[in-house]
């Protein structure tokens, strides 16, 4: 499947709003790490916001590949780049309404679980729940 930009946005936002929220809930409740309030949900929102920007770049770059698509391994590795970018923004620049006191371990654990879950859901659950998703360039509706 070669996703369109609109398809990338739909898929990213859908998966973060479902799988991402489900993974973030134990962090919010303080079950996994000490309670940081709504900080983890705000981070999830910034992942979605910045991710839509990254998708513009990814969509442009994939046009230089001969098959116009990313291998799954590269899709998984983009999570590392996005995590580093978000961590630098959190610690050095600051993001509105997110405290710089967020524990690094909590951020790494939360981001890793969300990213891996979204990646796996995008390569399994999306194909089962939305069978035409692959043929519409990643667009759900």
Low confidence ranges: none
CA gyration radius, whole angstroms: 15 Å
Mean pLDDT: 89
Number of domains: 1
Question: Count of helices?
Answer: 5
Distance between the ends: 16 Å
What fraction of the residues are assigned to beta strands by DSSP?
Answer: under 5%
The helical percent reads 55-70%
Shape: globular
Structural class: mainly alpha
The number of strands is 0
Order of helices and strands: HHHHH
Major β-sheet, in short? Answer: none
Descriptive terms for the model:
mainly alpha, 5 helices, globular, 141 residues
Please sum up the structure shown.
The chain is mostly helical. Helices cover 68% and strands 0% of the residues.
Itemize the secondary structure elements and their pairings.
Elements: H1 5-29, H2 39-62, H3 72-93, H4 104-123, H5 125-129
Helix pairs in contact: 1-2, 1-4, 3-4
How is this structure best described in words?
The protein has 141 residues and is mainly alpha-helical. The protein has one domain. The chain contains five helices and no strands. The chain has helices spanning 5-29, 39-62, 72-93, 104-123, 125-129. Helix 3 (72-93) packs antiparallel against helix 4. The longest helix is centred in the first third of the chain and has 25 residues, at 5-29. The chain is globular and about 45 Å long. It starts with a helix and ends in a 12-residue tail after the last helix. The model has no long low-confidence stretch (mean pLDDT 89).
